[in-house]
Amino acid sequence: GHALARVYGAALPTLLAEAIRPLPELQRVKLYIAEEQYILRKAYESLFPLEPGIEVVGVSGKITGEALVGAAQDLAPDVMLLGFNVLQQDTVEQLRMIRESCPDVSMVVLCAHYDVKGIRAIRDFSRDSQTACAFLLKHTVDTVGQLAQVINSVAEGRVVLDPAVMEGLIAGEESEASLLKELAPAEMEVLGW
Q1: How far apart are the first and last CA of the chain?
Q2: Given this model, what pLDDT does residue 186 score?
Q3: Sequence-separated (6 or more) residues with CB below 8 Å from residue 113
Q4: Do residues 82 and 115 touch, judged by C-beta distance below 8 A?
Q5: Residue 175: how many CB atoms within 10 A of its CB?
Q6: What does residue 182 show for φ and ψ, rounded to 5 degrees?
Q7: What is the DSSP letter of 113?
């Protein structure tokens, strides 16, 4: 009995040191949030700090290209969560500004609606991009957990498309192709010039 106590007694300080050694810190995704809608901005601001793998480094309602580029340069986020009411061609130009000034920053774009020119601009933006990104419609995201999963996926280099946005991209390509099919041979020749 005394021999066991001496063995465990000698090992006890080592066991205790192992037990109380701090765990390695979880790699956290640095997130910057820019959202037009005040209520959503406040919801994101209050919910994302509760997500274990996400660190919110800034929140703003300013979604101009200059403000977003400034935030990306100053705060160096891994991912920018960008909420727009309508995805338009101007919106995509703001995304281009971010990508040109901070190519390592990934983007999650949430919009309530989109127009045809916006979808075409997103298609061109995505083709030219080496940066991970996600394009989602706001009404298809049900929980902060889903959105956190998308943010983590984008931080890992993945591209995520909302099925409705994908349909818009495909429909846009089909409509362009069908318009060309309707042209007469002489019209195609003129178009070629």
Answers
A1: 99
A2: 66
A3: 85, 86, 87
A4: no
A5: 10
A6: -80, -10
A7: E
Tell me which amino acid residue 33 is: I
| Three-state secondary-structure class, residue 26 | coil
Sign of CA dihedral 74, 78, 83, 89: positive
- pTM of the full structure: 0.73
| Contact of 96 with 48, CB cutoff 8 Å | no
pLDDT tens digits, residue range 64-101? 999 999 999 999 999 999 999 988 888 889 999 999 99
Question: Tokens representing 188?
Answer: 């195609």
In degrees rounded to 5, what are phi and psi of residue 55? Answer: -120, 115
Distance of alpha carbon 32 from alpha carbon 45, whole angstroms: 10
For residues 154 and 142, give the distance between their C-alpha atoms in angstroms, rounded to a whole number: 18
The set of residues, in sequence order, having a beta carbon less than 8 Å from that of 150 and lying 6+ positions away, is 108, 134, 136, 141, 160
Give residue 103's identity as a one-letter amino acid code.
P
In this structure, what token pair is assigned to residue 176? 């362009």
Supply 23's token pair: 């765990």
Q: Between these two residues, 142 and 13, which has the higher pLDDT value?
A: 142
